[in-house]
Amino acid sequence: MRAPRTAQPRRPPFARRAGTLLRFPLGLTLVTWRYVWRVTALHRCEEDGDSGDLPPPLPAEQVDECVQRLMDGSGRLLHRRFMVRIEGARMEPEMLMERIARDFNRAAPFGAAVFHKTVGPDASARPGDEYRVQMPGPWDGPVRVVHRDAVSLRLATLRGHLEAGQIEFRATAEGEFLCFQVEAWARAGDRFAELLYGRLRISKEIQFNMWVHFCLQAAAIAGGRPRGGVSIVTRSVSSELCAGAQGC
Q1: Are the beta carbons of 9 and 196 closer than 8 angstroms?
Q2: H/E run at residue 72
Q3: Average pLDDT over every residue of 140-155
Q4: Of 182, 183, 123, 192, nearest to 161 (Cα)?
């Protein structure tokens, strides 16, 4: 079990939520602009999910009172996979993942998402490192690296994030292609976030555009080009199943 640490001061919930609402117009403008002018083919599929869509168990050594687990959230779980096949890549999967782990901001959408490391050395992401992702909209919150190997890296949300869940970045070789994938297991962090996430669908679309952009930038970092666009599969899981997801 990870040793307890001193909690960092946070803004009162009302102030944090008011700030979130005030940042909506600019955030939505950026998202809409990128969506309208995007020329890459996007292949979207939405399905009903089941117990097979729950995230991997969190490593016990990375879990403490700061982690915002799936069972701590509210509403339905969205299990989403964003995948791009990269043609002509000049990197192996291990090198691409190292580049991304060294600086998330190289792949994040400029002006709409900034990763600030708050815990850990100024080097490639390793388990236990923490970041705060700042966006001009509701996608603003702290995360911790809970898994890292040569070809994948997984983050978990921390208290104060507008989501509860995990997200994994993964690179693999498939024949002549280098494949990059973002896989997210997320539900709203609380009832306020559920309104934005599930009912108004604002957070859902911001997440959608952010990770599509991330996939396309991964292709650019690898020195290749997307083949066939970006495929996105979204599976929705009931809140009842999420509430009983122990260890996630």
Answers
A1: no
A2: none
A3: 95
A4: 192
Query: Rounded to whole angstroms, what are the CA distances from 20 to 55, 88, 140?
Result: 27, 40, 8
| pLDDT tens digits along 181-221 | 999 999 887 766 666 655 545 666 777 888 999 999 999 99
Beta strand pairing status for 163-174 and 141-148? Answer: unpaired
Burial of 4 (0-12, 13-18, 19+ CB in 10 A): exposed
Reported as half-sphere exposure (CB side, CA atoms, 13 A), residue 28 has a value of 12
Helix (H, G, I), strand (E, B) or coil at 34: helix
End-to-end CA distance of the chain: 15
DSSP string, 129-161: -EEEEE-SSS--EEEEEEEE-SSEEEEEEBTT-
Helix/strand/coil for 216: helix
Which residues are CB-neighbours of 232 under 8 A, at least 6 positions away? 42, 43, 44, 45, 80, 81, 82, 83, 208, 212
Q: Are 80 and 55 in contact (CB under 8 A)?
A: no
Q: The whole model's pTM is what? A: 0.83
Comparing CA positions, the residue from 164, 166, 142, 162 lying closest to residue 154 is 166
Separation CA 220–CA 214 (nearest Å): 10
The class that CATH gives domain 13-243 is: alpha beta
DSSP state of 196: I
- Contacts of range 20-28, beta carbons closer than 8 Å, 24 or more positions apart: 20/137, 20/138, 20/140, 20/162, 23/135, 23/136, 23/137, 23/138, 23/140, 24/137, 24/138, 24/202, 26/136, 26/137, 27/112, 27/135, 27/136, 27/137, 27/138, 27/139, 27/206, 28/137, 28/202, 28/206
